[in-house]
Amino acid sequence: MAMSKREKLLAAGVGAVVLLFVGQSIVSSFQDALTKKKEKLEGLVKKKQDQDLLVTSGIIANQKINIVAPRSLPRNVEKARADYMEWLIALGDEARLDEPTPRFLDASPFKPEKDAFQSFKFQIKGAGTIETATQLLYGFYAKDYLHRITRFDVSPLNSREPDRLSITLDCEVLALAIAKDKQEPPDANSNRFAKSLDEYKKTISERNLFSPMNYPPNVSAKKSVEAKVGLKLDYTIEATDAGPNQYLLFDTVGEVPEGLKMDRDLGKLSWSPTKPGDYNVVVKVTDTGIPAKSALQTLTLSVREMPPPAPPANKFDVASQATVTALIVGRSGPEAWVLSKTDDKKYYLRKGDQLKLGGVQGQVMDVGANFVELETEGRRWLVGLDESLADAYKRGQED
Which domains does the chain have, with CATH numbers? Predict the structure, then answer.
């Protein structure tokens, strides 16, 4: 039976749809396969790049290992231990470590098929000063071994010697798998330092690790001391120190005048000069800090002759404050009244009376209307009304 025109158009449409679906499926499958191949290719490229990077890293690492290989301990375990122990003993001697005790502590197990190196652990301990510890550290890091410090302990040795220290250094050193069995120790220095050993000593060893920085004592600015010939000079140096629990010691530096002595603990100069002149004495004041600090002072001892003795001081004479206050005629005859202002006493004198007042003494020879006549050691003198006895006596001795 023949298909109608309408049926033919419907069949053609269905075929086109089927053909389109089949074509799309084929194209999608092709695209999926292409995408997978592209991803696989990208993965292979990345894997190749990773392998190239790994190879390059291996080459670089191998070059680095070859560079540091001369710094390694020998591959042979016994020689590695012996060589490093010998160097450790020499390090202690160079640093002047007292009673050095080097020890081998441990070694890591080594598997040649997988390990690139083996580590060894050592220790050295002893006694010394801050300078010893500084030299020990400097000497360790100056040596170009593949080593490092794992522990460094410094502590006061005892209370009687505050500058003495107990020092312990623990370290680890490597032996590379590519090292020789009888490899020689490295000769070159490590070049790890920015300063010289002397510079490190100045900044590290010249101070106390267990207290603040110590500073020199402060000495009085007085520059000159006066002294007299024949008189003993005792002069104490004035100095202070800011450091806690410290005391000062005093000394003289260089030549000193004959007979001059210094009390080291008190800082007292003692001297009996015999000749005038200027004498320079250099005084050194040192504290007991760690490390000890000092300050210098130059004193000029100016020695002069003794001055002549001063004239004796005038002694006060009560007669200078005694005056004749009245001349009267009483029942017993003429009288002279004398008032001593010093002790507020009155004396009533008649002819023939003895007078002794201060530095004035004599016998009353006559009492007149305006004067009193006295005699002292055969010499007569007069005292007028309201006149000082001392002045009248002096005048009478001079006339």
Answer: 77-205 (3.30.70.60), 218-304 (2.60.40.10), 318-398 (2.30.30.830)
